[in-house]
What does this fold into?
Amino acid sequence: MPKTALVSILCEDRTGLIAEITGRMFDLGVNLGDTTFAVLGSAAEFTTVCELPDSLSLGAAEDDLRAIPLLRDAKVTVSPFSYRPVHGPSGHITHRIEIIGDDSPGLIARLSEAFVGYGANIVRLNSERIPGTGGVRYATRIAVSIPPGKEQACLATVGNTAAELKLTSRWDKAG
It folds into this structure.
């Protein structure tokens, strides 16, 4: 029976990382589940919940991934994943929201608080500082699961919160 594992890699960002990592995992017989990749400053983060074949131990998987030349000096961790590997209903994305404006401390905290009262779950969040001629702008993209019947009120609250922070916001219903 396959083992469910969490693979987490933090390293310097380099071209070809995803291809190298996922290619090696395929060669090892690893089946990927939920997977994320992000460039964070000059680093890159790759995380996946996956199934390892019976013949592959967590330690052997970790050692094999560390042997990838592009992962020199990387922090590689392969550990047991004791949670369900498949999303529950609150992991289903219903809306995608983009908020852009000047950077300010507490911005993500204030925006994320706007979802709590509606029982909305942030499924994915991506933020980046974007330098420009007029200073640093901040772009936040949020994929959220909003319970039925609470969508309009929740989105209005998020929009009002963004406006209070002098940010622009827009949203789309997920397909």
Strands lie at 3-12, 31-40, 43-52, 75-80, 95-102, 121-132, 135-145, 167-173. The chain has a mean pLDDT of 94. The CA atoms of residues 35 and 46 lie 7 Å apart.
